[in-house]
Structure formats: C-alpha cells, structure tokens
Amino acid sequence: MHRPLQPCAVRPTAGPCWGARPSRPARPMPSPLYVKPGPVENFNAPSWLDLPLKHVIESQQFNQASLNTIFEVARQMEDVRPGTPESRALDGAVMSTLFYEPSTRTRLSFEAAMARLGGTVLSTESAGEFSSAAKGETLEDTIRTVEGYADCIVLRHFQAGSAKKAASAASVPILNAGDGPGQHPTQALIDVYTIQREIGRLENFTVGLVGDLANGRTVRSLAYVLSMYENVKMYFVAPDVVRMKDDIKEYLTGVGVQWEEVDDLSAVAAEVDVLYQTRIQKERFQDRPDDYELAKGRYIVDAKLMALMKQKSVVMHPLPRVDEISPEVDSDPRAGYFRQAKNGLFVRMALLKLCLQDRLR
C-alpha cells in the first residue's frame, strides 16, 4: 500500500573539492562536489561535466545533460578496439582500485575499462585487512597517500558516507564503487544506460525494485537517478525487514515521483517494463540471523513469473545472484542481467575518460 510522506529537506551543499594535485604549485578555488538533484535543471549550479575535479560520489550529482553526455560517450566506448587512437586515450594515466570489501564485477570492470583506454592499474583488494588501515590509518590519510601514486582512485568501503569523506581529502577524482549500505552511483548509471538500451526510453515506464531494498545500495542510487525522468512509476517489492528506507521514499515524494509498496510480486509483474531483482544480502545480517531467514527466498523470478510479464520488458540484476533468479530464466530474451554487466565496462570507460581527459592535457 502506498504511504504518502512529507517531502524531505533539501540536501545541503557538500564540502569543497580541490582542482589540483598537491605536488603542483597552486590550487584553484574550491568548487562544489555536487549538483542539486531533481527533475528540473538547476541553472545556477555547475554541471558535473564542468567541474574541474570530477568525483563520482552519489547519484544526485548528475543532471540529465550530464547523463546524456556520459551515455553518448559510453556508446562510443562500445566501438573501441585495440590499436585505435581511442584505445590510447588514457595512455600514461594510473588508476588505483582501493577495495575494503570483496568485489569481482565492479573491480574487474573498472580495471578492464582503464586497460582498454591505455591506462595502468594499481590494485588492492581487502584493503582493510592488508593495508595500513589494519594498523589504524584513517581513510583520509590513506587517500592522501595513494593519490600521490595515481591519477584517480576507485573506492569501495563498508561504511556509508566513506566516499564523500574520501573526496573531501582528495585532489584526484574519487569514484565510489559502493559505500556499505549507502550508494553505488556507477552501478546506477549502468542500470539507466541498460534500461535505455533494452526498452528504448527513460520516460513513461514502470519499474519494480525487488529484494533487499533496505541494504541494497544499487536500488537506492537507481531510484535517485530515475527520479530525474518524467512519468517513471516505481513499485517497491520487499520483505518487511528489508523495505525501502524512508529517506528514499521521502525524496521521491518530494520531487513528485509515484511509488507504491506491494507484497505480491506476481500482482505487479504484468505492469512493469523493468523488473530489477536484488539478492538478500546475508552479510548485512551478521547480528540479525533470524531476520535473514525471514527475508531470504521470498521473491523468486522463475519461468512462472516470466509468463506474467510483458513480452517487451527486461529483467535486471546487479549480480551476484544466489537463488532469486532461477537459471531457467537465463535463456529468455528478456533476461538482461548479463548484458547489464557488460554495459558496466562501457559506462566505466566513459566515466574514466571524462574524469581524466582534461587532467592529462
């Protein structure tokens, strides 16, 4: 049942970011990290594309103009081949992947993206266990050290807000690869790009967000981005213990987006153009095993559910999956999750190019 909520407060302006590296003789004046979110362009704020230091911290940074440019470049990235001039666009650039949580797809796609554009990668996984963080070093000090070796830093961390904290200390672009239960903005851009490629539009459609909506940073980021587009209706389908948090629902209500919480996935399967399934994240239930048992296995996408869906629709999933999408669905043309994963390479290539090309000139 839809529960109307009051509009949320306007997000305050984020702290300053710096446009030059410490080794250079002078820093420019601070510039804003974020662009005011919402469906209406804010002409008084700089576009993300115009910022001298392009962090990717949360979905609200981007307006439609920025997204259009990112997606246009991503389409170009689909055609990059070894030996072409574009494959050397980031020749000489160094990217550090600093991961405090496990990752396969996100880390490898970022590293592949950098390699396909001619750059170099410095990689660390389980940074919290094997880096100086284990000795008590703060995240800010780690960032100030690593930026001396790299032209940008891709950060995954277990604490919400960690990417914003890192950006406040950085003089190179920080790209948020997931900050605990907070956000995963690059995945949101991949998801929106995939929706556009799969159903051919980003307006006038219905999306069902399914699964762990309380801990799922991908669905939080996606909801923010989709709110920029006209006439997008959202269904939130989740067990009681992992319903979408109120901050997202308040935000959507405040910007005029229709949303509804439902308990029965089959009841809305025929209505959705995009079904976005997520896994129940067991790692977020360390101190609540009983809640995990209540949530797991509640919503399964199988052949029976697919029979209810539109012929021109798509099933998406940020991966990895456990048992929430049956393998029998993989052969259905509407199963878009592996195409979605491949799109991650092109969108991240686009982001790296846009973040770094001006800094390398």
Please name the defining characteristics of this protein:
four-stranded parallel β-sheet; 12 helices; alpha/beta; 361 residues; five-stranded parallel β-sheet
Topology:
Layout: E1 16-17, E2 31-32, H1 64-77, E3 94-99, H2 105-116, E4 120-124, H3 127-130, H4 139-146, E5 152-157, H5 162-169, E6 174-179, H6 185-199, E7 205-210, H7 217-226, E8 232-237, H8 246-254, E9 259-262, H9 265-268, E10 274-277, H10 289-295, H11 303-306, E11 314-316, H12 337-356
Parallel strand pairs: 3-4, 3-5, 5-6, 7-8, 7-10, 8-9, 10-11
Antiparallel strand pairs: 1-2
Summarize the structure.
By secondary structure, the protein is α/β, with parallel strands linked by helices.
Low-pLDDT segments: 1-44
For the CA atoms, what is the radius of gyration? 20 Å
Biggest sheet record: 5 strands, parallel
Taken as a percent bin, the fraction of beta residues is: 5-15%
End-to-end gap: 54 Å
Strand order of the largest sheet: 9-8-7-10-11
Helix content: 25-40%
Overall residue-averaged pLDDT value: 85
Apparent shape: globular
Number of helices: 12
Name the structural class: alpha/beta
Can you write the helix and strand succession as a string? Answer: EEHEHEHHEHEHEHEHEHEHHEH
Number of strands: 11
